[in-house]
Amino acid sequence: MSLSPATRAGTSMRSSIVSTLPCLTTTCPFTSEHQTNINTTFRQRYGQFPDFYVSAPGRVNLIGEHIDYAGYGVLPMALSKTVWMAVARAPSSVHKIRVEHMNAEQFPAGSFPKDPQAAIPNAQHAWYHYVQCGYKGAWLADTATPSCTGNALQILVGGTIPLAAGLSSSSALVVASTLATLYCTPQPTIPHRLEEIAELARQAEGFIGTMGGGMDQAISVMGQARLVQFDPVRTLPVTLPPEAVFVVANSLTPAEKAVAAHVCYNKRVVEMMLASKVLARALALPDVLSYKTFAQVQNALAKQQDRPVPLDEMQQLARRHLCEEYTEADLLGVLSPAAWEDWFPHASSEERVRIGQVREAATSYVLRGRAVHVYAEAERVWQFQRACALNDDDASPASTLDTLGALMNASHVSCDELYECSCPELNALTQRCRDLGALGSRLTGAGWGGSCVSLVSTKHLDTFLEGLKDYYATNVSLAKGQDWNEICFSAVPTPGASIYVPTSLENGKA
Ligand code: GLA
Description:
By secondary structure, the chain is α+β, with helices and mostly antiparallel strands. It has 18 helices and 15 strands. Helix 6 runs antiparallel to helix 7 (215-222). The N and C termini lie close together (11 Å). Alpha-D-galactopyranose binds at residues 61, 65-66, 68-69, 212-216, 257, 445-446.
């Protein structure tokens, strides 16, 4: 029924794409039973078998929260829970990309135009809009004006990343879609490096309205545990101590990043941008409106003073020079004569829309607490990375775990008190995890719900998990049939996103 990919490829353009696109794997991401099930469903929905599969992991962030968009490195780990896509090229008469889900009841099918310029409808969020984001994002690689001349796609989605749990199920979907589109759409400019794909996927997710910093997409593309830095994306692999287990537990308070972005996530991004400008003015740096991240302020100060300016000094400067809260009128006093409209010369048109939405909902902006959190958290990331590296050499494992745990606890307090991105459920859960013997526990991801991650020593893991199970039984209402292994699990570093092209024989098995 379906042609093998090799038969379909046909053009020299496509074979060059296939040979240069990273992420291609020869290992099928599914058991053969699962693959057969996917193929059967695909055939029922689309009348043919898939040409290839893409798989992209979710992530748990170990430390470094809300600092990627401020220009600082973070330390996430890719999870073995993934989003996958089975994909085929549609017949040439089809002009829309169709997206189906294995669980059609919970995720009704949708479609979007083949034209990568088509806008994502803002009025109502639909799950498959993340697929459209990735599709549009893949075309950003094409420096010429993209015009899609290839076939439309037929896509079936499934996966194991718990939703709204702060584990990046949406970014994994964007990554999978970006890769799927890059793989099968002839474009002249194909990224050769994983870092470039991560950057495309970050930009892609911006189409849905969050002003994310790129952590989720980078770790999903690159996999394992890494210190990820930005502008441009670059990473440092981190070996976690073998005596440590990182346990993820879902507070079951949904964290839907895109839904209340104008008062939560994007509000923090705008506060960070405003604080950068106000701090730059206080430090008498030139061209204050050009600053959009705290890292830029730090770098400019270092340049002006011709010496490195450490993060803890930046923290002190933020404490000294910033007020806790500013109204727009206060900000005007500091940034005048420029008016609000001129304050974001660096913003894209998409970003201007998001900034406008934040402004409409805001009565004031908290600047000092946000800046202090970011500078201190950026330092904690490096301390965490150093403690892991030293553990490899000569530190005692127990003292390494204590150090890592203390950093995670400090990160949580800072997220709660200075960044105000926690919630009562996450505070209670992290506290209980510490009471049960975790050396550190903190919210992970954007916050305002979702999951926490706890550092537990391997020898205490069983008692910790038992205690946590009791806590859920008495304190957290579980929906009927909810799977405990989805709510609470030990994270294991996992490889990044991959594309797997089956042989026609494999497809024929279905
Ligand atoms: C979300 C964003 C990331 C990052 C985290 C907070 O997951 O997608 O870019 O900002 O929140 O650390």
